[in-house]
Design a protein that fits this description.
heterodimer; A: 237 residues; alpha/beta; seven-stranded mixed sheet; 7 strands; globular; B: 395 residues; four-stranded antiparallel sheet; 13 helices
């Protein structure tokens, strides 16, 4: 049998910018509480679409974690459960880049492919603030580099992504500044404990509804059983 | 007919956006605990036990690590075997991509296929998520009309008339959401000739292939000569096996497109959840008896509605597949968006207006059969006096 190898028309130009995906590593053992939570959810029939934002108890957990870890207050209504932090990063870049650059003074490997797909250059230093739309930060970033940049956020209508899925404790959460908070999107993930389950989240900002709607257009909702299982992880913690 | 300004602001504000309109009505319906939902296309059946057991087994065995980006090799091979066996598609595992539901499949296809300004022909009416996927890639959707008197079959001459120098792809949805119509084999053969002549890519959404009635048979355009290198066949597990929450679908395509979509997937969502892929593998390779039971039940419900809807003045074409009745409600004399709202508010029955599937369909309702026969009968009983009342008022 001759299987089809090449499409009869050229592919989109944007895919030329992408590299082959790296392989994932092994997963840690599944905690008993996760197994129990998944079993209960399967038994209860939670195998259909969830609400578009994700199950409320898991969104509450994300809000609680942000409060305990960083001292910021959000409502569960501002959280959307995503297919890993990968989806949250892409959704945020796609919806907020607006054809401009992403300024990333520290780590930026996790957004490199998403930025390439949408054609948003990543810059590490700033030459023209008006050419930037998003400031991408992680907890590992150097505060001495970031603090002056935060002063430009409101002046130039930037959005700020704070990617908590990246380990680190150097940089405080930018949403602690109440004036910046409406422009800050927090991203998080359960992948360090449950890597194949594809559970992440995005939270906060005045763009929360817009981001949620776009996530819905991509994948409708996130795997239901995985959401309930992640609650088990929270219970164990 | 125009939309009545008396409908609530949260519905009126999104009335021009099909997807937002559907969600607004679902959120409104959630306020009525006794509402009968005949809106969303989420099967009300329980996911078959052997699928749930396979998922639990995979977790117990610690088989939850991320899979390769394109999907678990065993699942890709099983999907390819299904496509060869049931759809006569000449594909191997290398032609398969496992997706996070059919909706992601659409998204990936458009991202990997379309450059800004490329046009995709889309049958009208349609599930408006197609519009969003196309627009997200900078493409433009061009509507191809289908008609009530033609059972909403796709006409080759209408397809050809819509082709321009920017047309890159044609979307086929068979059976159709929302109409329940199918594209018959004779039409598919004629459309394939057009696709080859104009060098078009065909995106064939066959998500509802297992739900056909009155002896109609499914046919895949990708099986025709000259089509393998220009066809993307989209399918999934959600509707077939009542497992929408697992978010797992699949598609076949030429290898270079699969590789491109795999890169896009890595950049946008990552691999499909591993437990969902185990669920999909169990669905494909396990007993098909639950599916046969679903088919029997849907047929029974459809028979009920075939009688009940005309009795209240709602007529329809020939619903040959899927879960839906695409009913002409223009005789009631009220715009479908308002009528949907009234049926929900006064009758506690959630039905999507035709405008949720294209703005020109203000004289149609999409009614799903995804409730038990008892609840469907109750819904008909609730709808009757409301329709009678408004029909009398507008006479």
């Amino acid at each position: 049998m001759n299987t089809p190898q090449t499409l009869s028309r050229p592919l989109a130009a944007r895919v030329q910018a992408l590299t082959d995906p790296a392989a994932y590593g092994d997963a840690p053992p599944v905690p008993q509480a996760v197994l129990d939570a998944a079993a209960s959810a399967l038994e209860a029939g939670h195998t259909h679409y969830t609400d578009r934002p994700g199950i409320e108890p898991l969104r509450e957990k994300a809000v609680g974690w942000l409060g305990a870890r960083y001292g910021i207050e959000l409502d569960a209504g501002q959280v959307t459960i995503t297919c890993g932090a990968t989806e949250a990063r892409f959704v945020t870049l796609k919806q907020l880049a607006a054809g401009k650059s992403v300024l990333a003074p520290g780590q930026h490997e996790r957004i490199a492919q998403a930025a390439a797909l949408i054609g948003a250059p990543i810059v590490q230093t700033i030459s023209d603030p008006a050419a930037v739309s998003i400031l991408y930060l992680t907890p590992d970033d150097d505060p001495t580099l970031v603090t002056p940049l935060l002063g430009l956020v409101q002046v130039h209508d930037w959005w700020v992504i704070y990617d908590t899925a990246v380990p680190g404790e150097r940089l405080a959460h930018p949403a602690l500044d109440a004036q910046l908070a409406p422009r800050v999107i927090s991203i998080g993930s359960y992948s360090h404990r449950l890597p194949g389950w594809r559970i992440g989240w995005m939270a906060g900002s005045s763009a929360a509804n817009k981001l949620r709607a776009y996530k819905q257009s991509m994948t409708i909702c996130t795997t239901s059983i995985a959401q309930w299982a992640a609650l088990g992880l929270e219970a164990e913690a | 007919m125009t939309a009545n300004p008396n409908i609530p602001e949260e519905v009126r504000a999104v009335a021009a956006d099909g997807t937002k309109l559907r969600y607004a009505l679902m959120e409104l319906a959630a306020q009525y605990p006794d509402a009968i939902a005949l809106g969303r296309g989420d099967p009300d059946m329980a996911t078959p036990a052997h699928i749930r057991e396979a998922v639990l087994r995979s977790i117990r065995d610690g088989q939850t690590a991320p899979t390769p980006m394109a999907g678990m090799p065993a699942l890709r091979d099983a999907i390819a075997a299904k496509f060869r066996r049931e759809n006569a598609l000449p594909v191997g595992g290398e032609n398969i991509l496992v997706t996070t539901g059919g909706q992601e499949g659409l998204f990936l296809i458009m991202q990997a296929l379309l450059d800004p300004g490329d046009e995709v022909l889309v049958p009208d009416p349609r599930y408006t998520s197609y519009d969003e996927a196309i627009a997200s890639a900078g493409g433009k959707f061009v509507l191809v009309p289908t008609e009530h008197d033609d059972a909403f079959n796709l006409r080759p001459e209408a397809v050809e008339a819509a082709i321009t120098s920017r047309t890159k792809a044609l979307l086929i949805v068979t059976p159709s959401n929302p109409t329940g119509g199918i594209v018959t084999e004779d039409r598919l053969r004629a459309i394939a000739d057009i696709a080859i002549r104009h060098n078009l890519i065909v995106i064939s959404d066959e998500i509802y292939e297992k739900f056909l009635y009155d002896g109609w048979k499914h046919f895949s355009i990708g099986s025709l000569p000259g089509m393998a290198e220009r066809t993307i066949t989209l399918n999934g597990f959600s509707k077939t096996y009542a497992m929408t929450g697992f978010r797992v679908g699949f598609l076949s395509a030429p290898v270079n497109l699969i590789q491109a979509m795999t890169k896009v997937k890595a950049a946008t969502t990552g691999p499909t959840a591993t437990i969902s892929q185990w669920a999909g593998l169990a669905a494909l390779t396990g007993s098909q008896e639950p599916l046969h039971e679903f088919q029997r039940i849907y047929n029974e419900r459809r028979t009920l509605m075939l009688t009940g809807l005309p009795q209240m003045g709602l007529n329809f074409s020939d619903p040959r597949g899927a879960f839906f009745f695409w009913t002409n409600s223009s005789a009631i004399g009220i715009h479908a968006t308002e009528l949907s709202y009234l049926l929900l508010k006064e009758g506690r029955v959630l039905i999507f207006p035709g405008t949720a599937f294209g703005e020109q369909w203000g004289g149609y309702l999409r009614i799903s059969i995804l409730q038990s026969t008892d609840l469907l009968q109750e819904a008909l009983t609730r709808m009757q006096p409301i329709l009678d009342q408004y029909r009398a008022q507008t006479r």
